From TrEMBL:
Thioredoxin-like fold domain location: 9-83
Coiled-coil residue windows: none
Source organism per UniProt: Streptococcus sinensis
Family matches, as PANTHER family: THIOREDOXIN (PTHR36450)
Protein name stated in the entry: Redox-active disulfide protein 2
Active-site residues (renumbered): C18 (nucleophile), C21 (nucleophile)
Keyword Endoplasmic reticulum: no
Gene3D superfamilies to which the protein is assigned, alphabetical: Glutaredoxin
UniProt cross-references to Pfam families, sorted A to Z: Thioredoxin_3
Disulfide bridge positions per record: C18-C21
Amino acid sequence: MSQVSDNQMMFKVLGSGCKKCQTLEDNVRQACQEEGLEITVEHERDFVKISSYGVMSTPALVLNEDVVSSGKVLTVEDVKKIIREVPYVD
């Protein structure tokens, strides 16, 4: 399991690696870059691990081990909104 410092966010894209999953990952990276944040982004393709998050539809997005979206491709703006809701991000 990856360790995340208090000031670093870690995103996981959950899905098979299809175009929708890749688009979500790209949008997460772009949103974080535009917000000036250093992040870790992982892509989990193992459906046993994906199901352990309780996700029934992909792509899904996990932020610091909490599922924040499933079943849709978030836009860059959607991801920025999620980032801004994290209490310790300036």
